[in-house]
Amino acid sequence: MTDLIPLTGPGPTPTGPGPGRRPARKTLRVVVAAGLALALAAGVGYAAELGPFAPDGPPRPDAEATRQARAFLTAWEAGRMARAAALTSRPEQAERVLNSFTAGLDISGQKLTPGAVTAGEDGTVRMAFTAKMPVTELGTWTYASTVPLRRQEDGAWKVEWALSLVHPKLSGTQKFRLEREDGAAPEVDDRDGTALSSEKYPSLGPLLPQIAGRSGAGPRGAVRLVDRATGEVKATEATFGTKSARPAGRPVATTLDATWQAAAEKALVTGADGKDAALVALRIDDGEILAVANSPAAGFNRAVSGTYAPGSTWKIVTTGALLLKDAVAPGDVVDCPKYLTVGKRFQNVETSEHRGATFEKDFTASCNTAFIGLRDKVGDEELGEVAGKYFGVGQKWDVGIPSYDGSVPAPRDQTEKAASMIGQGRVQANPLIMASVTATAVSGTFHQPTLTGGAKDTTTTVPLPRDVVTQLRTLLRATVTDGTASVLADLPGEVGAKTGTAEVSEDTANNGWFVAHRGNVAVACVVEKGVTGGASAGPVVRDLLGAVPGDPS
């Protein structure tokens, strides 16, 4: 999504040929965004704070039910069980079960992500959702379920309460039981042998037991499905930790850097303004993770396991796909109109436009309509193929702790393809993924991120061509010197960056994104409900890089 910062003035002058760049072209190719006349005549766009595209026609019949389902999941996620239960058909039972489920399984900081909505022939509406349930000191239990809704006699929609809503296997005859295996957690050290503790580095509190458990020296446990009457175990739903012959008393080594970790924690506390946020910093040349920070520090690990639309930071991958095909060059004219309709009307911040802009200007100003206008230059599945083949996104990563490794599904229609070009639709990522994307873009080679250093590389990728890398570096640098990432302009060195703003829903403020690279470090930050990337996540990254001026050892 375009970043919600008004931009005026001429675009940057295209740079001349550098090492590995194509020779400058004698003529400019003009790429005109299709459908402009139709876009100017039809539809009403969202207000700037609501996102880059607007639905055509009246609300869907299930829109009210969808809002009710989202409200239920939001209240449950926030731990407001009474509020969530009040939205159901059986409030008293719902509140009791929701409380006993989280307390009995020692769950805190749950993350509930809404999914597809379907309408049944019987009049019910169902919203799929993904549940990520952090079990204290063990790890995250992930599963999928569904929120059913039915219209009541008074015409209002309510969540139709059922035990299976909480988990598909929860019923009147079966429940879950948490079993822990006692064991003293070992010391966990950073890359230089400095001891790491949750007291000094709060964001590491939920991670240290996972790291220790992965080494075979930490706490272990399991979530069992049991018969309510007899207690007989019917199935094991999740296991945490592994057994090993690791010598007792030996610290567990990590790739973390105590200096970067402390600076990342402080930057989030100072810059996130109390909002939910996450940050990852990693080494560009080998993918070793230097810092993982979350706000709030306890609970769900948004930085590594979160699932977010990456917004305009994804334009790094989109640009890579276009450059790989020689479909566009930084100096080419790619018009940036106010609107563009592809099933829905897409727009830029405050309906801004940059007539006659070069592609470099479109990138640095984060123009949605220009990127969407280039959608026919890539195949329907090509964006996902490039993301996986060159950037490792969507492959299975072995990070050292549970992680979400991204998803770029083939678009179901042209509207979704248009959204995917700007990091919306069904494209999913998190700060770990976007820090890795940034590192790959500026080095040309994907390195599987790792927290433990000895993790097995389970990916298969190929390097980006050097001329593509050179152009990506130039664009990222220009975004700092002449674009939406100017918050970093006063930092020394060749700093490059990209801002992003990602729509969440009609009634929720946008998430703010910011990615950057300097020296041998790549950083990515997301601030939930940050509204804009430059104003919310940008200062966090600025504080981090300002606090640690040099590269890690």
Description:
The protein is 28% helix and 21% strand. The two termini are 36 Å apart. A 5-stranded antiparallel β-sheet has the order 14-13-20-19-18, with helices on both faces. Strands 3-4-5-6 form a 4-stranded antiparallel β-sheet. It has a 3-stranded antiparallel β-sheet with strand order 2-17-16. The protein has 2 domains: 63-172, Roll (Nuclear Transport Factor 2, Chain: A); 262-547, 3-Layer(aba) Sandwich (Beta-lactamase), CATH 3.40.710.10. A hairpin with a 5-residue loop joins strand 10 and strand 11 (233-240). The protein contains 16 helices and 20 strands. It is of the alpha+beta class and 553 residues long.
* Unreliable sequence segments: 4-59
Count of helical stretches: 16
- CATH architecture label of the largest domain: 3-Layer(aba) Sandwich
Average predicted confidence as pLDDT: 85
Whole-Å distance between the termini? 36 Å
Largest sheet: 5 strands, antiparallel
Q: Percentage of helical residues? A: 25-40%
CATH class of the largest domain: Alpha Beta
Number of discrete domains: 2
Total E-strand runs: 20
List the helices and strands and how they pair.
Blueprint: E1 30-31, H1 36-41, E2 53-54, H2 63-77, H3 81-86, H4 91-104, E3 111-119, E4 125-135, E5 139-151, E6 157-159, H5 163-166, E7 174-181, E8 188-189, E9 195-196, H6 207-214, E10 220-227, E11 233-240, E12 252-253, H7 258-271, E13 277-283, E14 289-295, H8 302-305, H9 315-324, E15 333-334, E16 339-342, E17 344-347, H10 359-365, H11 368-373, H12 382-391, H13 414-421, H14 431-443, H15 466-482, E18 496-502, E19 511-518, E20 521-527, H16 533-547
Parallel strand pairs: 1-15, 8-12
Antiparallel strand pairs: 2-17, 3-4, 4-5, 5-6, 7-10, 8-9, 10-11, 13-14, 13-20, 16-17, 18-19, 19-20
